[in-house]
Amino acid sequence: MSTIASSLQPPLSGQVAVITGAGRGIGRAIATILSDLGAHAILCGRSRPALEETAAAIEQSGQRISGGSSARNIEKDSRRGAGKVSQKSAEKTPAKTTVIPCDVTDLASVEALAAQVTRTFDRLDILINNAGVGSFNGPLHQLSPDHWDKLLNTNLRGVYYCIRSLAPLMIKTRGGHIINISSLAGKNALPNGAAYAASKWGLNGLTYSMAEELRAYNIRVSVICPGSTHTDFSPHTGMNTERMLQASDVAHVVAMLVTQAPQSFASEVLLRPTQKP
Question: Rounded CA gap, 261 and 274, in Å?
């Protein structure tokens, strides 16, 4: 690597990213890659131990971010409008992550998250709405109302709560990325998973509409629709897991979206494995 190349800061240096469902699987992979790109990753989810595991893995990755920044230094530099870290900040050991437990189905919990992000960083550059639950156990007429509520409240209402609470911070600074993690189930029929499909069809529609609402503020809203993805949280019986999408594949798409040239954005990405599993 040349001297010039090695001296360059990572593309997301000084930026702040909130990732919901960051305690495992796709959320953990996304948080890791955003951190590697220089962003300070705010890890959100219901399980503090899982979030702490993600944080520890990122902090101990050994990939020291050149010119990285702690929460305090990001706050200081963002108030100056610099968006970059001072030389004094770079000399300190940077914290790559902040853990904030949050239940996206609880508006008060999401509002508390937004208040802490505002108070500590006074900026938000990236919001990844990844938290979600699934159900593929039977036909819709056998699904209990409680199970329906859990699915829709997490997969759709939770995204609404996060956008309602956090988008104003992006509007204030006139810029940012919102990326919603949906599913190919939001594009195709899914027998025995109708409630899950409904939540993802709704999430896609929400994304398309929000993209139009927020374009004037230089906020790019995108949706990623992966096919079957191999994670510990969502095993797929009978499939060849080596051929399935991996959490890192989804994270790679996120990285492409947040580093795209500013004059355009990909509003929707459909992600499939090369070989059918």
Answer: 27
